[in-house]
């Protein structure tokens, strides 16, 4: 990623990366921690090192837990995920959930 970013110098990055599957997160939690948390940390490091100006991160509705309101407001609390999968999709930077 560092090489691609240094060559192409993007100003905007849309991050849609994910490892889908709530059930698999129960069977293999370390895969989710590695791909979603460590992986996203690595992406943020590249953003920092290459001075990305803007980025968009897509999470999933799982982060809202048992919330039954629709549509799901992005301002709703996501402090109580119902699965490890949902917990790995919660990204928080500077106190704001992404």
Query: What is the first-to-last residue Cα distance?
Result: 21 Å
Mean pLDDT: 78
In the residues, how many domains can be counted?
1
Poorly predicted parts:
93-98
Helix and strand content put the structural class at alpha+beta
Biggest sheet architecture: 2 strands, parallel
Helix content: 40-55%
CATH architecture: 3-Layer(aba) Sandwich
CATH level-four homologous superfamily name: NAD(P)-binding Rossmann-like Domain
The level-1 CATH class: Alpha Beta
- Using the CA coordinates, give the radius of gyration: 15 Å
Shape: globular
User: How many individual helices?
Assistant: 4
Q: What is the beta-strand fraction?
A: 5-15%
SS elements, strand count: 4
The name CATH uses for the topology is: Rossmann fold
Q: Give the oligomer, counting copies of the same chain as homo and different chains as hetero.
A: single chain
Strand numbers in spatial order across the main sheet: 1-2
- What order do the helices and strands follow? HEHHEHEE
Task: Please outline what is shown here.
This protein has helices spanning 2-8, 22-27, 29-50, 84-89; strands at residues 12-15, 54-57, 92-93, 96-97.
């Amino acid at each position: 990623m560092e090489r691609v970013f240094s060559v192409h110098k993007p100003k905007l990055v849309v991050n849609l990366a994910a490892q889908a599957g709530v059930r698999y997160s129960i069977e293999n939690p370390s895969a989710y921690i590695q791909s979603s948390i460590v992986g996203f940390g690595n992406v943020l490091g590249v953003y920092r090192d290459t001075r990305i100006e803007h980025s968009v991160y897509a999470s999933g509705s799982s982060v809202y837990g048992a919330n039954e309101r629709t549509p799901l407001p992005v301002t709703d609390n996501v402090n109580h995920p119902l699965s490890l999968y949902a917990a790995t999709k919660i990204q928080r930077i500077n106190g704001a959930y992404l």
